[in-house]
């Protein structure tokens, strides 16, 4: 496995692969990789001849008061994980390699980006779409792999790929959890020991909601109430949002009779964590 920093050099390698008729899988990441990323790389390895993992903390998807500067970075650890998981290349560009100083193109997927995380993070999805489409143009993968933990991101990228005719299959991969249920996230590294145990309340509240849905409850307000009550029982937790939306349109539902996404964002101390599950009435 090799690490490449320059776009031209990466393109040269990809062209050689394409000339040999090899397929390419892309796993876009912001680094500080964990078992969730590892599962994406392994899936990409299974389904493609070659795998590129991009490691780039993308400045355009962070708002002015967000954690761009403090976002955890450890390229040596990432290289070891990628190599063990079977990746062929880590693409680790600098911000000036990725972005022209006078770049002025934006990509906005309207509708899907307005609720959930987009409501409080107005620049986030524009930045994600911009960097992901640049990576798609640089790597020209056959398939690209994203985690279902970022359910809104996955829906937005799928829509962008369809709307802009990218010839790329977007593959969503299941959430990977710690043994005690906490969804794996690079941001879990911000949590103190005490906050780490408090963070379990996210998955616990979703588990209660799933049980109620399985028991046949179909009133979104009642389900949201179950989640909110559980989250409020943890003094370190501060709710950002608890939402039940249609899993395709991401619009809130009045009654649960279709495929829904139950999504939450919660501050544990200063750390904002997200979690979710999808549910189809009669189908789970
Ligand atoms: O999910 C992430 O880590 C990022 O949003 C992504 C898709 C790598 C774009 O920077």
From TrEMBL:
Origin: domain of life: Bacteria
Catalytic activity: (R)-pantoate + beta-alanine + ATP = (R)-pantothenate + AMP + diphosphate + H(+)
Binding site for beta-alanine: 61
The enzyme's E.C. designation: 6.3.2.1
Pathway entry: Cofactor biosynthesis; (R)-pantothenate biosynthesis; (R)-pantothenate from (R)-pantoate and beta-alanine: step 1/1
Primary enzyme class: ligase
GO MF annotations in UniProt: ATP binding; pantoate-beta-alanine ligase activity
Residues that bind (R)-pantoate: 61, 153
Main location: cytoplasm
Location of this chain's protein in the cell: Cytoplasm
Cited SUPFAM superfamilies: Nucleotidylyl transferase (SSF52374)
Cellular component annotations (GO), alphabetically ordered: cytosol
Gene3D superfamilies registered for this protein in UniProt: HUPs (3.40.50.620), Pantoate-beta-alanine ligase, C-terminal domain (3.30.1300.10)
Active site residues according to the UniProt entry: 37
Record keywords, A-Z: ATP-binding, Cytoplasm, Ligase, Nucleotide-binding, Pantothenate biosynthesis
List of residues binding ATP: 30-37, 147-150, 176, 184-187
Gene Ontology biological process: pantothenate biosynthetic process
Family, as annotated: Belongs to the pantothenate synthetase family.
HAMAP family found in the cross-reference section: PanC (MF_00158)
Family annotation (PANTHER family): CYTIDYLATE KINASE/PANTOATE-BETA-ALANINE LIGASE, PANTOATE--BETA-ALANINE LIGASE
Function per UniProt: Catalyzes the condensation of pantoate with beta-alanine in an ATP-dependent reaction via a pantoyl-adenylate intermediate.
Self-association and partners: Homodimer.
Other notes: The reaction proceeds by a bi uni uni bi ping pong mechanism.
Protein name: Pantothenate synthetase
Organism, as annotated: Clostridium acidisoli DSM 12555
